[in-house]
Amino acid sequence: MPATSRFLRACRSESVDRTPIWIMRQAGRYLPEYRALRERHSMLHLCRTPELACEVTMQPLRRFPLDAAILFSDLLIPIPALGCGFDIVEHRGPVLDRSVRSREDIDALKDPEDLRSLEFAFEAVRLVKAALAKEAPGTPLIGFTGAPFTVASYMIEGGPSRRFAETRKFMHRDPVGWDMLMGRLAALLSEYLVRQIDAGADAVQLFDSWVGVLSPGEYRRHVLEPTRRVIAAASARRVPVIHFGTMNGTLIEAMADAGGDVIGADWRMPLDTARRRCPGRAVQGNLDPIALFAPQEVLSRMIDDVIDQAGGLPGHIFNLGHGILPETPIENVRFLVEAVHDRTARDASKERG
Amino acid sequence: MPATSRFLRACRSESVDRTPIWIMRQAGRYLPEYRALRERHSMLHLCRTPELACEVTMQPLRRFPLDAAILFSDLLIPIPALGCGFDIVEHRGPVLDRSVRSREDIDALKDPEDLRSLEFAFEAVRLVKAALAKEAPGTPLIGFTGAPFTVASYMIEGGPSRRFAETRKFMHRDPVGWDMLMGRLAALLSEYLVRQIDAGADAVQLFDSWVGVLSPGEYRRHVLEPTRRVIAAASARRVPVIHFGTMNGTLIEAMADAGGDVIGADWRMPLDTARRRCPGRAVQGNLDPIALFAPQEVLSRMIDDVIDQAGGLPGHIFNLGHGILPETPIENVRFLVEAVHDRTARDASKERG
Fold first, then answer.
1. Distance (Å) from the C-alpha of residue B168 to the closest C-alpha of chain A?
2. Kind of pairing, strands B282-287 and A141-146?
């Protein structure tokens, strides 16, 4: 069974010969070849130069037998299309040129004009598809975007935040203005995803990284509908959609109601719980990224726990429960990928008798 | 019905004439009289000077008809008894003199010697009890401590953290060393709570503020037992124990298994869910602190939602879902306290027919 079928079949909860695995932020700082590129180029320059984005995307595939590639990019890449410039500041994260906190700020957002300014991202998708065909035939490419809430939170806060106080104040103070902003973002992010799919992405992931600051009631009232619009736009192109959030222990059902063939769970949501609370969906996750720092006998047990909690191969995509950490030892990443494949290949052959 | 019965009866899920309310960090920066004191004294000086700690504790009681006082203090106040000094740095939080990351570091911890060095805290409890008897007769005093996990996380990280990476690495790398550290903390924090009770605290709250970074499995294996020891020590003195954590959407059952007459829910855990998942316990919470920045008609609706989700008066203590924010408008705090009392007094009289 080629890798492509394995990942895409798992997304559709179909039978597989072993559990597919990819790793959030698999193209990143834990790789020395990535750090070498970053010495010469800024993070944003890598994202915005198709050849470099392609090179970074391919780096982990050359080291590990991963079952999917994911486009190297950043959650905020599409927002300059609305006139919101930003930079990524070392040890701090994204810093926006201005923040969006009023109706006037929303009215001042630009029309994205068919995303011409984001053409570099779609070109990167095409280059990665060609590179995969040559270097790792059959490996699917995952495109991605931030979800409307998470992207809105950066635009309102003006950068990273711990409490997302301004975001939540805005939501409660002016729910109609909030809906207008979310509507603008839903339109932009839908189109951004669809264009990645049209360029060749085989699946997409929606990152609602900070949605866990909301209660289920807040999510259903203020966030579900624009999120559903983005997922529906991608689903209409008939590619699987992975819907991922963190700290979402109380709102995973509401997130599932917004859509997604696959629900991504962070490391705090046991996969058996995720399966029970999201019936009919595949699940993705959810090894604690910290496990990769543990001695290999501990790591091995934690990997087995995740596979056990997933309760069988169909409908499970192995991943970490959040992005891989920059200081992660590479030998443990190799150990992880091989352990998942070996263990689940044995499980699959046992099942076949 | 005097306030004392109202709060303590609610902790025991007994009938009340209205829902009691207190506010996490009710003695704090949103009060101008607190900010005035802080201009002259450091946070730690306020905590460590019984007369000043008493004065700060009493400030919110003079403004609002709150149903309980809570000792003004800090989660890290007891750790110098183990030889871990710290300072509280403006806009940054606590910074420890050293971090505890190895067996050697644990061996180097001091013996707390009957908590003589923390006598200021117990003296503050006695002064507050006397002040309450005079100024707000019948109002109970809540003592508190950080839970072993949350206190350990500061000791290991050396200060505030976002990902608690060092804490979780330690836990997985050396589970036996981890258990030793948690054992030392369970002993210290139990004694610290018991001495507050002996000095006059009528109830206690255990703050496991950062426990939500753990999965249920991690909590049960590494955290439940030392937490249970602290709660059991306080319960043995026959005062109600409130057990509070945040981001605990996946592990509230495990926290309830560690104990607590009352389970404190953050704003993301609807109280009907908390009640269902923690049968037989009272619940405390859980208005989003951000709600206090909303227009009063929105705030009013959000207060009603919390009361509705609590599903009736017995066994509900109204509170925020996390500490009150420093910029909170005072007039909305007054509105909140009055709204909770008025609405639930009407509910209670309806129930009586």
1. 7
2. unpaired
Cis before A286 (ω within 30): yes
**Alpha-carbon gap: A284 to the closest alpha carbon of chain B (Å):** 16
CATH topology of domain A3-351: TIM Barrel (3.20.20)
Q: For chain A, what is the radius of gyration of the CA atoms?
A: 19
Q: Do A293 and B172 touch (CB under 8 A)?
A: yes
Cα nearest neighbour of A301 on chain B: B172
What distance in Å separates the CA atoms of residue B213 and residue B146, rounded to the nearest whole number?
16
CATH entry, B3-352, from 3.40.640.10, 3.40.50.2300, 3.40.50.1010, 3.20.20.210: 3.20.20.210
Indicate the residue of B169, B216, B288 with minimum beta-carbon distance to A290: B169
Complex ipTM value: 0.91
pLDDT tens profile A61-111: 999 999 999 999 999 999 999 999 999 998 889 999 999 999 999 999 999
* C-alpha dihedral sign at A158, A164, A167, A169: negative
Residue A330 contacts B where some CB pair is shorter than 8 Å: no
> Which tens digits make up the pLDDT trace of B126-156?
999 999 999 999 999 999 999 999 999 999 9
What phi and psi, each to the nearest 5 degrees, are found at residue A160? Answer: -65, 155
Which secondary structure element, helix H or strand E, spans residue B87, and what is its range? strand B86-89
